Amino acid sequence: MQFYSTNNPKHKVSLKEAVIRGLAPDQGLYMPERIPVLPASFFERISEMSFKEIGYEVIGKLFGEELGEEQVMKLVDHTLNFDAPLVKVSEGIYSLELFHGPTLAFKDFGARFCSKLMSILMEGEERKVKVLVATSGDTGSAVANGFYKVPGVEVIILYPKGKVSELQEMQFTTLGENINCLEVEGVFDDCQWLVKEAFLDKELNEKILLTSANSINIARWIPQCLYYFYAWSRLPEKDKKLAISVPSGNFGNLGAGILAERMGLPIDVFVASTNINKIVPDFLHGLDFKAKPSISTISNSMDVGNPSNFYRLLALYGNDEALFRKKVKGFYFDDEDTAKAMKKVMEETGYILDPHGAVGYLGLRNFLKMNPGEYVGIFLETAHPGKFKSVVDKVLGIELELPDRLKEFMKGEKNAKGLPNDYGAFRAYLSNSIL
Ligand SMILES: Cc1ncc(COP(=O)(O)O)c(C=O)c1O
Ligand SMILES: N[C@@H](CCOP(=O)(O)O)C(=O)O
Fold it and tell me: Which InterPro entries match (predicted)?
């Protein structure tokens, strides 16, 4: 399987090159040249299969030719070593809990897969690699933990000063060793811009082997499709049509769901749910796709004004905007709606949503209301509420008990360097820290 750039379908590279480069030289995102469809027999057996067995088949179809069966199994075993339970919240509404990994957010799946795949692909290489990461909170913690002490890899995390939760910040700034953190005077989109500029800097790339562990990299993006298959395998109400709502920011997660659907998974409708950073819902309602400055919200990890996976979503629908708008429904919610939903769901069901999951829940509920009785719905609960403890406590008027794993992160000492929102300063930092 080769991978093409969304900016030029003729530019095709191997799996290794796509993963090591991260972003195509023309700034496009890599995509599999063909999307393999899983056989009917796979879907007939899926309910009896374990998460890992599902993973072997799906990843085998995508990467098996290049990696072989043994490496595929190693990769999947390393990635899927925690569960993603499907929990019934109310009649016809299920939460896919993606927060049972080491840093309690869905990014753990992609980060673990990415670090393992990079190690496999770099085996025997003399070159060392610098992994650049822009984060609004959760990618940073998952990547830092996934790549911590991996030999030959140095990670540089850029995050917007004062715009990630305290717990998220502690999860990546306290590790040290090969994990370096830069606190940027700006918003998430500035961090993403700085990273992309570094990839375009020819001179710098001649000196340093740079790659990305954001969802722009197929090694971070593709494995996120696995839990959509698993969710369907565990869904009790398969006789109904299925709607899945994805709380979205950079849109890698939704893109991975669409990939799963293109591989044959019977998902009837996707709901793209955002906070007031509503660039994609606006597009789905007929406006042009237009990046905007991001606005701070209580679902801070989704404060993205220039979602980098947009053109990947379009490519998954054959660049057919009408088809994209038909298959994906867009909703957005402000902080007041989000807080109200968190309270209502806790009062009515006892289920505690984090602010991102609450946005996903709201999108799903709105869609189901418009189509009564026809669908069963799943929303992705993308992070543990404890990661946003101060917001959750304030909104719900409770004192949320943190899981031990989160408490552990609070014991370390923050270590981050300040960085102005200026490419020259970032370049100087990278040039001075050549491995
Ligand atoms: C908790 C949480 N929910 C949702 C999202 C949005 O996911 P995506 O960027 O893949 O759209 C993020 C960040 O990516 C996140 O950290
Ligand atoms: N919300 C993200 C932003 C980066 O998303 P990614 O999936 O492209 O890495 C975060 O948690 O940092």
Answer: Ser/Thr_deHydtase_PyrdxlP-BS, Thr_synth_N, Thr_synth_N_sf, Thr_synthase-like, Threonine_Synthase, TrpB-like_PALP, TrpB-like_PALP_sf
CA proximity to 156, closest of 178, 138, 136:
178
Any ligand 2 atom below 6 A from CB of 223: no
Closest CA to 225 of 299, 316, 311: 316
Summarize pLDDT for 213-268 with one digit per residue, the tens.
Answer: 999 999 999 999 999 999 999 999 999 999 999 999 999 999 999 999 999 999 99
Answer whether 32 contacts ligand 2 (Cβ < 6 A): no
Atom of ligand 2 nearest to the CA of 215: 8
Q: Is 107 a catalytic residue?
A: yes
Write the CA distances from 435 to 4, 7, 181, 334, integer angstroms: 30, 32, 16, 44
The verdict on ipTM greater than 0.95 is yes
Enumerate domains of the chain plus CATH numbers: 83-105+220-396 (3.40.50.1100), 107-219+411-432 (3.40.50.1100)
- Report CA torsion sign: 228, 230, 233, 237: negative
- What's the pTM? 0.97
